[in-house]
Amino acid sequence: MPEPTQNRPENNGEEHDETSSDESFDKEEFDPEEAERRITQFVTSAGKLSGPPVEELAEQVATLMRSAWSDL
After folding, report:
1. pLDDT tens for residues 39-64?
2. Do the beta carbons of residue 11 and residue 4 sit within 8 Å?
3. I want to staple 2 with a disulfide (CB 3.0 to 4.6 A). Which of 6, 10, 45, 64 is the partner?
4. pLDDT above 60 for 11
């Protein structure tokens, strides 16, 4: 398995460094209320798309993750 900082085609030969990302996560700037608003907005807008309901997809993912976790 390649190392996380190993050069790969998708990063155009540049090494990936989590700490130098433009979108780095700063715990001091994290707003849980804003995060919840964004998640709610995403789920609401996804519900308007064709296909299975978001709740059904979420349950399928949760079931798959529980199965994978128990297999580990």
Report:
1. 999 888 988 889 988 889 889 999 99
2. no
3. 6
4. no
Tell me if the pTM is above 0.90: no
pLDDT digits (tens, 9 = 90+) for 12-29: 555 555 444 555 666 668
Rounded Cα distance, 36 and 61, in Å: 19
How many other β-carbons are positioned within 10 Å of the β-carbon of residue 54? 16
Measure the CA–CA gap between 16 and 13, rounded to whole angstroms: 9
**Quick one: 16 exposed, middle or buried, by C-beta within 10 A (0-12, 13-18, 19+)?**
middle
Do residues 17 and 5 lie in contact, with contact meaning Cβ atoms separated by under 8 Å?
yes
Token pair 């993750």 is at which residue?
A: 65
